[in-house]
Amino acid sequence: MMTVLTLNDSIIKENEMYHYPESILNLIKNLARLPGIGAKTAERLAIHILKMKRAEAEDLAQAISVLKEKVRICSLCMGMSDGETCNICGDPARDAALLCVVEQPADMASIEKSGAFRGLYHILNGTLSPMNGIGPDDINLKELMARVRGGQVKEIVIATGTNLEGESTAGYIADRLKKHPVKVTRIASGVPVGGDLKYVDQVTLRKAMETRHAV
User: Fold this and answer.
1) Host H or E run for residue 147
2) Which contiguous run of DSSP H or E holds residue 74?
3) DSSP 170-203
4) CA distance 11 to 53
């Protein structure tokens, strides 16, 4: 009887891989749990790792171990960091009066690659989505308001996505900030409606940042 394991929409049929020892099958199964990695890709990666020099394989394993041990949440932007604060928040050359609000760390990375922004960031780690039970207390809005109340921020650029959840979150933030003496702008032209920032090219992101407008 054929055994079928379903992992992240990948199907591993064990009777098609019976020629592999248990140790390789175990690695294939674990690699197939990664997003975007199907069974065939997991198989190729496992064989590639097997063929690597021992030192290279140990470096890979060590990098994963250190990643899990060291990476934490930056106390300021709520992004990823190896220390109390991330490299961007700790950079004295950044404009601390300018704060860009994004949904996820990947969105911040996309804007950084465009080279269009030299301020600091605040990562919400999500968007408002009442239908999915995600409200203001479920994303990093309290932390954002605390930074605004600190008095150093003069302008907030809202760079959430242009889909329904992103626009709703942008509107909610703009409304909350009306009571505070900060300029509020929204990332502008160039980002397609319904688009996801991490898939937008750097030239488009630069244009959107440079032509931001008041909310």
Assistant:
1) helix 141-149
2) none
3) HHHHHHHGGGSS-EEEE--TTSPTT--GGGS-HH
4) 29
CB atoms under 10 Å from CB of 109, counted, come to 14
**Single-letter residue type at 64:** I
CA distance 97 to 183: 10
Q: Which domain covers residue 147, as residue numbers?
A: 86-214
Is residue 24 included in any domain, yes or no? yes
> Of 125, 211, 124, 105, nearest to 176 (Cα)?
124
In this structure, are 116 and 54 located in the same domain? Answer: no
Q: Let me know whether 128 and 195 are in one domain.
A: yes
With CA atoms as reference, report the closest residue to 64 among 49, 77, 51: 49
Angle between helix 39-51 and helix 22-31 axes, rounded to 10 deg: 120
pLDDT of residue 9: 42
- Rounded Cα distance, 118 and 96, in Å: 9
What is the mean pLDDT of the segment spanning 187-212? Answer: 72
pTM above 0.90, yes or no: no
Per-residue pLDDT tens for 131-173? 999 999 999 999 999 999 999 999 999 999 888 899 899 999 9
196 and 101 fall within a common domain: yes
Mean pLDDT of 107-134: 93
Say if residue 203's pLDDT is above 80.
no
